[in-house]
Amino acid sequence: MKRIGPDVIAGLSVAGLALPEALAYAGIAGVPPLAGLVAAVAGLVCYALLGTSRYAIVTATSSSAAVLASALHALPGVDTAQALTLAAALVMMGGALFLICSALRLGRMAQFIARPVVRGFTLGLAVIITVRQLAKLCGFHATQTALAPMIAELYTRRSEWQSNSLLIGVAAFALLVLLRRWPRLPGTLVVLVVGIVAAPLFGADAGIALVGPIDLGAIHARIPRLDFETGFRAAELALALMLILFAESYSSVRGFALRHGERIDVNRDLLALGVANLASGLFQGVPVGAGYSGTAANESFGARSRLAGAAAALFVAAALVFLRAWVARIPEPVLAAIVIFAMRHAVSLEPLRPYLLWRRDRPVVVTAVAAVLVFGILNGLLVGIAVSLALLIRELTQPRLTELGRLGDGHDFVRMGAHAEVRAVPGVLILRPEEPLFFANVEAVLDNATARLVAAPTARTLVLSLEESPNLDGTCIEVLGQFAAQVLRGGRSLHLARLKDPVMEVLARAALPGLTGPALSGGSVDAVVGALPPANGLK
Prior knowledge:
By secondary structure, this protein is an alpha/beta fold. It has helices spanning about 5-30, 35-50, 60-75, 80-105, 115-135, 145-155, 165-180, 185-200, 230-260, 265-280, 290-300, 305-320, 325, 330-340, 355-360, 360-375, 375-395, 440-455, 475-490, 500-510, 525-530; strands spanning about 60, 290, 400-405, 415, 420-425, 430-435, 460-465, 495. The mean pLDDT is about 85.
């Protein structure tokens, strides 16, 4: 018991946080509360069995719930009866995509979404979620998805505002702020209990919406059936859902792993997230991921292993079975207050300050925030992903070349101008591409090299150091052959240095004129320069 005691205690504390958040995030997604509770149990159990982080807590998250709501809104002709079927289909498709990525070992794909984009998207998303929950505080559900229309809706529907609903919601938020003084106390659970007790005091006709009855008979495995057109559109939306889930989960899991020196297997975590979402969708639950708040709480409560997540799942399931009559009495404005309180860090500009201070990626951050606020969550996410890919393409296609020279009398070759002792080698121009050569940048890079060679009429030999290129595609090989022929026609020679083994092998097979034998070397620049014939004036 001494060995599992800390995990059981941490699991109980995490359940106190996961239960209200599951209910609240189901509300964000626009599905019944039961969907959030089912998802919490599925996520916690599956990750405890298959995941690699001892701290990660996989349940419903605010961002995935918001993306799901936007995806359902984007599908035409969705009524209440169809919402659960479509939601389950989206969640299961997202889970299937996780499994495919795990099988293909694409664990680093989250790095293709630039962090400034993720930070900006998170801020915009937090603002959207907060404003939407303000509508719930006022006693109604907002129908708009972008910020300006949502604010306009809040104003135009002011006659529907319920003063009692607003009062109990504001009081719940104030109590959450007060309970921050005792961080080990499950504040959200305390606020839920107080809300359940306080709501009846306002009277039956007070205008305070409650969670409502929870029917356990609705829990059953079912594979959703969609027509081809709807299924195809849902698959596109599931890709966006999977990407944001993975970006959020990867950030949380990796952050805590680095903090504790813990090794994680990203591809195995992809498998765990895939199985968790398939299980959640199979039982009509919302999407699940490793959220920061639950993971941080698990760490602070003293968890030692993934058993804490399994214990949390057990406690949530027990509450679902034995306390559902009380869960049904939770006031919706109290859940809205819990969400707004949880969003307080995400709404902060603090995560964006480093990019402003470093004077890097400022337009990207602003674009990511504005895209979500102007176009809504789903379209804003797609814009953010497009910006990330555009950044990657722009970076890789820059034809940057560095000219190298010998440092003093040693064997090191460094950037010209880096030190006073750096000197050019007589008769030799040494260039290093700063990006891997591939089909989109090779022509621009070699055109730049041609211009540099023209500007150096005394150079009889050009040495290209290709240390940044682990492999070459067909376009690179063809363009390199054309470039070598051009250099030869000018009465000069071309030598390639620091070639990786795959590059050496493919160029040896290609046998390009001017790029055979001694012209190809896996050795250092110093070795290549030292092996040049006396005609270069080196010996």
